[in-house]
Amino acid sequence: MSKRKDERQVKIRNILLKENRIKISELAKLLDITPETLRNDLNELEDQNIVIREHGYARLDNSLSELPVYLRWQENQKDKKMIVYRAFQELEDGQVVYLDSGSTILLGIPYISMKKDLTIISNSLPLALECAKMNLNIIFAGGSVLNEGLRCYGHFAEEIINHMHIDVAILGTDGILGSNGFTTNTIHEIGFKRHIINQSKKIITVCDQSKFEKEAPFKYCSFNETDLLITNQITNEQYQRIKDIKNIIQVKEA
């Protein structure tokens, strides 16, 4: 899929998040694209169970538990890159590092070259591929594949983690709102993430500010288990919700 199409489909999703339901003709005008182009985009989004069309209208499929990784990758890119760049500054040469499958960490892979002789562990298919392209030392925790997130979980993935001693784990989150910890949209991930936490000396969580306004149903980590949270500048109210975290770094825009 082209970058332009990726960006357009993210815009479609964001409009539908705001409007809930919108006329397809109005959507084409907002995007300034031809009806044919919009029809092709909606066909693809419908095939992925992201969008539902009904009587000249389009709306999001609210039953979807997780957006495909290529759509999440397009969201808040500038904020995510600043955050993960700062997170990688916490790493030391020669460490064993677990990198989570979230879109924030995936965006920062080019920055990992700042460090030398890292052993990288991940359950993310696209992250492992990018590391392999850069000739980095990557151990892939394979198992059952979650198709939307392009990542693995389950017994086989957990067994690989159980044989590793991890210096630093960098984890993401699907939401913070309404929780006293970091959360995920998929119940299958809880066990795997708990194995990561148990095998790691240091836990770093990364998330952009938008996650403070999102909810996800399954908590995998309490705030007081996290050694460091790296995020964008947040409000005082948001800070009060996460004050149990041992250390919080707010990355300011240069």
What is the fold's blueprint, element by element?
Blueprint: H1 3-19, E1 21-23, H2 24-31, H3 35-47, E2 51-54, E3 57-60, H4 69-72, H5 77-88, E4 96-99, H6 103-107, E5 119-122, H7 125-133, E6 137-140, E7 144-146, E8 151-153, H8 155-162, E9 166-171, E10 181-184, H9 188-198, E11 200-206, E12 218-222, E13 228-232, H10 236-241, E14 248-251
Parallel strand pairs: 4-5, 4-9, 5-6, 9-11, 11-13, 13-14
Antiparallel strand pairs: 1-3, 2-3, 7-8, 10-12
Brief sketch in words of this structure:
The chain is α/β, with parallel strands linked by helices and 254 residues long. The protein has helices at residues 3-19, 24-31, 35-47, 69-72, 77-88, 103-107, 125-133, 155-162, 188-198, 236-241; strands at 21-23, 51-54, 57-60, 96-99, 119-122, 137-140, 144-146, 151-153, 166-171, 181-184, 200-206, 218-222, 228-232, 248-251. The protein folds into 2 domains: 3-63, Winged helix-like DNA-binding domain superfamily/Winged helix DNA-binding domain (Arc Repressor Mutant, subunit A, Orthogonal Bundle), CATH 1.10.10.10; 71-251, Rossmann fold, CATH 3.40.50.1360.
